[in-house]
Amino acid sequence: MAESRTTINRDTEAAPDDAAESAPESSGGSGGAQSVRPPGSVDAEAAATIDQLMSTAGVGEEGERRSRERTPFTGKVALVLIADGKIQPPALYKAVNISPGGLCLQSRGMVHTDQAGAVQMRKSDGQVVTVGVIIRHCRYVADGIHHIGIQFAGMPPKLYPSHFETSPGHSVLDQS
User: Fold this and answer.
1) Domain 5-175 falls in which CATH fold?
2) According to the model, what pLDDT value does residue 46 have?
3) String of b and e for 124-149 (b: at least 16 CB within 10 Å)?
4) Which of 12, 14, 19, 128 could form a disulfide with 162 if both were Cys (CB 3.0 to 4.6 A apart)?
């Protein structure tokens, strides 16, 4: 069964996609689509925020990144960055929270700020979405853990959902 994928570009409407520097979270095993969380759970609330984000115009506007309410979100998020003009391999991270303007991810290493890229995550209906991002900050928390502040932005040119695939049709998110 083909999985529905959507690419979000804040300058255009969401459309189905035709293409089926830190130490990332380790991933092992294979898995299918992530199950939908029960209503009232933290991840269900975060999934609802993702759904709302996908239908909200103007996400990622400058000047509002800290004024928006954050929702705890502990799901996995795949991140692809562009470093020195080269598209880096996808990496899995554990999310900390989400807001209409961006995400906070947990990392075992540092990520340089002002890098463009994209994240891929699952909506509550299981649909995979790809959203352009910019790294806004990376802060040491404790015990080797960093929090990466990511602002939603337009998709960088030449970066496509297929950059998140480990094999044709299989997202790195399937490796959770």
Assistant:
1) Thrombin, subunit H (2.40.10)
2) 54
3) beebbbbbbbbbbebeeeeeeebebb
4) 19
